[in-house]
Design goal:
Mean pLDDT: 83
Number of helices: 15
Strand content: under 5%
Helix content: over 70%
Radius of gyration: 19 Å
Structural class: mainly alpha
Largest sheet: none
Length: about 290
């Protein structure tokens, strides 16, 4: 198994810290950070190479096959990256909880700005890549679905381990899609603040349930999602964008319940828009740089 130099481990770990800091914020895609920092393709390749054979070979104590599967998934790279992501997520959980408690309206307004800017960003990508009118039909369908889902009462789901497991299963699918935030999925399912509290207190049953759900989601859906994005790229992105915009209804309700769109909340909303804009500029610069050096 080929090892990577310690210096590369450190840089991958630092990129993981940056990804983790963004992954914990609803509306910011860790995939975008991976693209900006130049590891997106390597990450997607590593995730795509994860197969059930990895677990099967370990259960069978077939260490030769297990070693071979680890080599396929670029294991040292993933370990360094996941360590960075994990440290950032655990470190920032209590900070976000403070903001949600002390500055509720501002925080949800900030999330709302992030979601709206991310949706516009993906819409521009769809318009640039496809003139397919069917995509805009799915955009409308996604909006309706999101609006309806946001109007439901997710509190009835509770916070049992099976519910957290399913949340991880769904959220991980969002995390490997371009521009979609896995943290936003946890917010829609009413698990966001609960999981932040679990991270803050290091409550391992809840953390493990979420992580196991995510790992199984990777094994089950990563290839399906890659296929859909390859063959139905515009339609998939359109539906997901509509879903994001429609479900943002929930954020508006939370802001209104916490005091409404005051000048401070509007400033927080604008800050969310600006953050995504900055990330988009950095992403475009990275793409331009790679195209020039290709």
């Amino acid at each position: 198994m080929a090892e990577i130099p310690l210096k590369e481990y450190i840089f991958v770990f630092l990129k993981g810290l940056f990804m983790g800091a963004c992954d914990i914020i609803p509306g910011v895609s860790g995939g975008t950070i991976a693209l900006i920092t130049g590891i997106y393709e390597r990450l997607i390749t590593a995730i795509g190479n994860i197969r059930p054979e990895l677990v099967i070979s370990l259960v069978r104590l077939d260490f030769r096959s297990f070693k071979s599967e680890l080599e396929r998934i670029d294991v040292f790279f993933l370990i360094a990256l996941v360590a960075g992501i994990g440290l950032a997520v655990v470190s920032l959980a209590h900070v976000i909880l403070i903001f949600l408690d002390k500055y509720t309206a501002f925080t949800f307004a900030f999330f709302f700005g992030l979601i709206m800017a991310s949706a516009v960003q993906i819409l521009l990508e769809i318009e640039k890549c496809s003139r397919n009118r069917i995509a805009f039909v799915f955009l409308f369908l996604g909006f309706v679905a999101g609006y309806v889902v946001a109007g439901l009462n997710p509190a009835v789901l509770g916070h049992s381990l099976p519910v957290i497991f399913v949340t991880g299963l769904i959220a991980i699918c969002a995390m490997i899609l371009p521009g979609i935030s896995g943290a936003y999925i946890t917010l829609l399912m009413n698990q966001y603040e609960f999981l932040l509290s679990a991270l803050k207190s290091l409550s391992f049953p809840e953390i493990i349930s979420y992580v196991v759900g995510g790992l199984i989601g990777l094994l089950l859906f990563s290839r399906v999602l890659k296929y859909l994005l390859k063959h139905y790229h515009a339609v998939m992105l359109a539906f997901l964008t509509g879903l994001m915009v429609g479900s943002a209804r929930m954020l508006v309700v939370k802001v209104e319940a916490a005091g409404g769109f005051s000048s401070g909340a509007l400033a927080a909303f604008a800050a969310g828009l600006v953050l995504v804009l900055i990330m988009e500029v950095l992403k475009r610069r990275y793409k331009k740089k790679t195209e020039c050096t290709a």
